[in-house]
Amino acid sequence: MNWADPIERNVTNKFVDRKQAYPAKRTPDSRRADFLEIGAPFADDAARAQAGRCAQCGVPYCQVHCPLHNHIPDWLRLTAEGRLQEAYDLSSRTSTMPEICGRICPQDRLCEGNCVIEFSGHGAVTIGSVEKYLGDNAWENGWVRPIEPGTPTGQSVAVIGAGPAGLTAAEYLRVAGYEVEIYDRHDRAGGLLIYGIPNFKLDKSVVDRRVARIEEGGITIHRGVKVGKDITLAELRERHDAVFVATGVYQSRELTVDGADKDGVVRAIDFLTASNRSGLGDEVAEHADGSLFAKDRDVVVIGGGDTAMDCVRTAIRQGAKSVKCLYRRDRENMPGSRTEVAHAEEEGVEFLWLSGPASIQGETRAERVQANRMELGEPDADGRRRPVVDPSSSFALDADLVILALGFEPEPLPAIFGEEGLDVTDWGTLECDEDMMTSLPGVFAGGDISRGASLVVWAVRDGRDVAEKIDAYLVQQRNPSAAAA
User: What is 156-249+410-484's CATH number?
Assistant: First the structure.
């Protein structure tokens, strides 16, 4: 192939001739020494070569299984042809943060896991790496366009939460002509993109440039504002024509075994937030006193999702003496990304499959975890085989730092916001109708607070969808007769 030709036709469907290839990873030894992203960027020719493996399927399962329904085969073809700006423009039509999703989406469970050539045994197109390449390349070349506000409507929208759902909704609403103000409890915008996901997966500069673009587009972000304390939901409803609740879910599930309340047993979100704050240059008292720092500690992380993977890999980089992950199901049934597990194993994490905690032991603080072997029994309501304790097997692990990565639940927003009329489901998520509106007129919800703990890409999808719903609602509010007609 002549890579110098900017537009070369008939360059796709090359999956038989070309092997699957990802960007080169740094060695495990070098990765353990810092929090830099672990992969090198694709070189131009490598990105085009991998994009050219796409079979251009008549029914693109990669696109079907992407929550955003990104036009994946189309921008892969454009990439293979060297039409990189067009490829980025197409990827950004359906996603407000393609280079972020390219970094952190579990592609092995979504687009790449459903790639037709993966089924044929040739290895999926490395879609996520190409998406990341397109986004980064667009920023470097000045192809990322500023937000262009639409014709002013005279109406405004409040967004509660500056995470992926809130930022996405704000952008689409601004383009539709609305004044948008975001209210976030943290001192930085980005939500879990900033404080939940480690730098080795998502460098914070990648998030910061998206946030800067949001503000340059005329969207106001009020940082350090807690709704329910600094301002009430009722006041926001009075001040704005609609409200979008995109707070995410940050309440950690509890471990219900003896000793779970001992010193040295910490929540994953606290551990990761402290680490990210330190990486951002903040003074973190919990690092200084060692309560949320893994150096020279025997660390046991309990859980098997992506948050658990973030914790074990962070502990390795902080210089832990040993890092073990305790998970009650087997490798095939874990919820976390298979790719992340492989990265963790390369970096020195030991996984104890089919193992669950029975108690946390120690005098006043954690010293060891007493655990049981597990067996997989009958399927539960979700179809996953239920873990059952094997009573004949028990073992102990040295652990003076135990990190609980058991998932997240919604905070009690009606009580926090002082709005008892805000209905919730049996799971504590905000109850919404088909238009994503809560029980309070003009108050909408999306992302994890309405769907439960999920992926960033689903939050982006909800932000995109809710902007359309809010727009339709506000059009009706300012012109009821036309809407009725």
Answer: 3.50.50.60
Tell me if 35 sits within 8 A of 198, measured CB to CB: yes
Cα–Cα dist 443/280, whole Å:
34
Query: Burial code of 417-439, b = ≥16 C-beta within 10 A, e = fewer?
Result: bebeebebeeebbbebeeebbbe
DSSP 439: S
pTM of the model: 0.94
Residue 484 has what pLDDT? 53
Contact status, residue 475 vs residue 481, Cβ threshold 8 Å: no
Residue type, 6: P
Close Cβ partners of 255 (under 8 Å, ≥ 6 residues apart): 265, 302, 357, 404, 406
Distances (CA, A) of 331 to 34, 119, 352, 447: 27, 21, 9, 28
For position 189, what pLDDT does the model report? 98
Listed in sequence order, the residues at least 6 apart from 169 whose beta carbon sits closer than 8 Å to its beta carbon are 159, 244, 246, 446, 462, 463, 464, 466, 467, 470
* Dist CA 404 CA 298 (whole Å): 14
**Residue 483: its pLDDT value, please?**
52
- Helix, strand, coil % in the chain, rounded to nearest 5: 35, 20, 45
Tell me the two tokens of residue 351. Answer: 């996984």
- Condensed to tens digits (0 to 9), the pLDDT of residues 158-197 reads 999 999 999 999 999 999 999 999 999 999 999 999 999 9
Q: What 3-state class would DSSP assign to 156? A: strand
Whole-angstrom Cα Rg for the chain: 23
Q: Say which CATH topology domain 28-141 has.
A: Fumarate Reductase Iron-sulfur Protein; Chain B, domain 2 (1.10.1060)
Element of type H or E holding 220: strand 220-222
List of residues 6+ apart from 105 with CB closer than 8 A: 111, 128, 455, 456, 457
Would you say the CATH fold of 156-249+410-484 matches that of 28-141?
no
State the pLDDT at residue 327. Answer: 97
**Domains of the chain by residue range:** 28-141, 156-249+410-484, 254-404
- 3 state DSSP class of 239: helix
pLDDT of residue 1: 42
Contact 356, 326 (CB under 8 A): yes
pLDDT of residue 333: 87
In the chain, which residues have pLDDT < 70?
Answer: 1-9, 482-485
Q: Distance (Å, rounded) from C-alpha 193 to C-alpha 208?
A: 10
- Looking at domain 254-404, which of 3.30.1340.30, 3.40.50.2000, 2.30.110.10, 3.50.50.60 is its CATH number? 3.50.50.60
List 265's β-bridge partners, or say none.
402
Which residue's entry shows tokens 């999703």? Answer: 101
